[in-house]
Amino acid sequence: MPLLAKDFVPEKSKGGMFKSGRIQSFQEVLEAANIWIKENPAIDVLNVETVVLPNIHESDEEGSMDTELWTGGESSSHWYQLLRVWYRQD
């Protein structure tokens, strides 16, 4: 059985002209992971880890599965904490 991983990334809503977008709380991300685990009884959860990545919501990035996430020296970066569930499936 191959080792698989599923990421639970905090969703970000679009902001307005004078309002920043809302990022889901870590508790909401944890609840989404727990729901997914309960709804998939055929999986064998091996490990759950927190991962912190930069700029995953930027338009030129591919989210948590991007192999190259960019952060510059003088420009600002936004870092996001997500959950990664490692599992095997029958």
Automatic annotation (TrEMBL):
Superkingdom field: Bacteria
Name under which the protein is recorded: Uncharacterized protein
Biological source species: Marinoscillum luteum
